[in-house]
Request: fold
Amino acid sequence: MNAALNICQAMHEAKLPPPVSESSRERARSEWLYNAAEDLLRGSGVAFQRRMRKPQGVTAEQFALAVDEHVNRRLADCEVETSALGWLLITAERGNVDKTSTAELLGRSGHPLGILGEIAEGLLRPLVDDALIAQAEDEEL
Reply:
């Protein structure tokens, strides 16, 4: 009986994916990406410069434009089923915040920072490697 249990356990473990082991580089990439996305969500731009290269980054304006494009695409594709944009504008004009309409316009997300975090990371992802190199170069000084 014990042998049969061991065989079943071995077969089960063989079907499982190997344990994930993030390298320090992957952790650094993930951490930089998350922190930079938080900066964009706070309204700050993200900028860095490698030695002997042009400055790189994402401005708050570029992020806002990407959010505009996301919401416009959702509206054009009829993914927003309420008058969320109208309510958002009405409540904003009155000086209030309408989080329900905002959530409807942006859509659902499993990202810790929501759909805005996904959009921010989409803009930042191509820059991660250069940003980490720039950090390392700064630390050498």
Observations:
- DSSP finds seven helices and two strands in the chain.
- The mean pLDDT is 90.
